[in-house]
Amino acid sequence: MKLVKHEKKLIAVALALVVFSAIMLQLAGCGGSSAKTTAAATTTSQSALGNQTSTATKTTTTTAAKTTTTTATANAAVSNSDGTVSISAPSGWNLNDLGLYPNAVIGVANDANSEYLIVTKKAKTDVSANSTVNDYLNLVKSVFGLVVTNGVWGQSSNVTIGGCSGLSVQLTGIRKSNGVSTVYYINVVASKDYYYNICGYTDASLAAANQAQLETIIKSFKETN
């Protein structure tokens, strides 16, 4: 009788251990699944956030590039007081700087980068009855002799700007007004009744960087009457 009771106790203990082990295994399995779910959610969230950041960065870069391009290519038409001649210059420049030269009919300036351009106009009859472009160039040279010291003139070459033919020549010298070594890109051309001098100039130290911009403006010159 005692042996039977002892066996029943052993069986009860064994069953209790089996139930306890099953409960512990179930709890362990749920914990592992929860950890995996949390890790997966975190990874997904981080990936989505990374994609949003990358997209935002790309959008900002593209917008900035478009703005820069638009600003760089913006030009404005500039005419003299009676609208008979015009040029095209960057809109950010001073487009009405006639103080650059007393006889200028057009004057534009970019003081921040020492870039300047003037247009002068003279009736052919005011030079001489049978004058030529060479005669007018000699007159222009005499005027520059009054405002520039140590002037060095380059070789002149034929040029056609806005349908007007003439001569192009480069002058390097010291401006008397400020003592700065300056390069002048002089273009004297003739229409039916007038001579024009389209002259861009800049500091000699900036000539290599500014020449292309000044020549672009010079080539935009046209007589509109």
How would you explain this protein's 3D organization?
The structure is a single chain. This protein is an alpha+beta fold and 225 residues long. It has 2 domains: 73 residues; 149 residues, Protein Transport Mog1p, Chain A. The protein is built from 3 helices and 10 strands, in the order H-E-E-E-E-H-E-E-E-E-E-H-E. The strands form 2 sheets. Strands 3, 4, 5, 6, 7, 8 and 9 form a 7-stranded antiparallel beta sheet that branches. It has a 3-stranded antiparallel beta sheet with strand order 1-2-10. The chain is globular. The N and C termini lie far apart (136 Å). The N terminus is likely disordered.
Strand content: 25-35%
What's the shape?
A: globular
Class based on secondary structure composition and strand pairing: alpha+beta
Report the CATH topology name of the largest domain: Protein Transport Mog1p, Chain A
Notable features of this structure?
about 30% strand; alpha+beta; disordered N terminus; Protein Transport Mog1p, Chain A; about 220 residues; seven-stranded antiparallel sheet; about 45% helix; three-stranded antiparallel sheet; single chain; 10 strands
